[in-house]
Automatic annotation (TrEMBL):
The keyword Protease applies. The keyword Lipid metabolism does not apply. Keywords: Cell membrane, Hydrolase, Membrane, Protease, Quorum sensing, Transmembrane, Transmembrane helix. It holds the Pfam family AgrB. This is Accessory regulator AgrB. It comes from Thermanaerosceptrum fracticalcis. The chain crosses the membrane at residues 42-68, 80-101, 107-125, 145-166. GO terms for molecular function: peptidase activity.
């Protein structure tokens, strides 16, 4: 049974016990799904890291990545289990890499973390917050999250530099893990990350739904779009969407030129 079905089942039971309406039941199911999904992902990643003896570095990378992601947003996979699988792979890889590539000299580590922090800072200025198509932000919310994301990178650089100086090299692997976590998350803000995840989603859908028999045009939301840009009268909540790569009947990837394709809300073509 999927997490979605489990959440709905629990919500139905609680709704009957508490005499809640259908709308309240749906809200409860949505909240339960988020909680169960997050807890499951956390347990899977940290337990896997423990058995691979990379628990501390993986935990630091995950903590930095997740904290930054709450403010800056980023690309999402279309399916929870894809998110879990790729998230597990990325976090375990960061945890292991942080143990392997250790900068022992304080000066080199300070330079490395400064470059990482500066890169994250610049990407935030350009792309944060990177929106989730399922949650469209207002202009005020975007500006607030952009400012908070930028502040996060500055505060992170300050804290990590003080930590490097006063720890005297005892926790350099944890510093590397945190730097890798913020760097990877900053990359998820970019249009290139949205394209890459679009390719992966498309390929997995293609394989799961019957190979060459599955032909679908996949459209995804790119960051930086603002409400009302459809220019259609009476449509104030819509967002432009972009045509991304699709699969032809032979199973090969066809790259289509990006262009405004329509409106997600009013479903009109321009």
């Amino acid at each position: 049974m999927s997490i979605h079905k489990i959440s709905c089942h629990i919500a139905q039971i609680l709704s009957r016990e508490l005499a809640l309406g259908e709308d309240d039941s749906e809200v409860m199911a949505y909240g339960l799904e988020i909680i169960l999904s997050s807890v499951t992902k956390l347990v899977v990643i940290l337990s896997s890291a423990y058995f691979l003896d990379i628990f501390s570095t993986t935990m630091v990378a995950l903590l930095t990545f997740s904290s930054f992601r709450l403010l800056s947003g980023g690309v999402h996979f279309s399916d929870y289990y894809r998110c879990l699988g790729f998230g597990l792979l990325i976090m375990l890889s960061l945890g292991k890499l942080a143990q392997i590539f250790i900068l022992s000299q304080t000066f080199h580590l300070l330079v490395f973390t400064f470059v990482i922090g500066l890169s994250a800072f610049l990407l935030c200025l350009k792309w944060a917050p990177a929106e989730n198509p399922n949650k469209i932000l207002t202009d005020e919310e975007k500006e607030k999250l952009r400012v908070l994301s930028v502040i996060f990178t500055v505060v992170w650089m300050g804290i990590i530099h003080v930590f490097v100086v006063y720890s005297q090299g005892r926790f350099n692997s944890l510093v590397m893990a945190s730097a890798m976590g913020i760097w990877v998350q900053s990359l998820t803000l970019t249009p290139q990350a949205y394209k890459a995840v679009g390719y992966i989603n498309m390929l997995l859908d293609f394989l799961r739904k019957g190979g060459a028999e599955y032909v679908e045009k996949m459209v995804v939301q790119l960051p930086g779009n603002s409400p009302g840009s459809c220019s259609q009268s009476g449509c104030t909540a819509c967002q432009p969407i972009y045509l991304l790569p699709t699969q032809d009947a032979e199973g090969f990837t066809k790259i289509l030129k990006e262009k405004p394709y329509g409106c997600k809300s009013c479903d009109r073509r321009r």
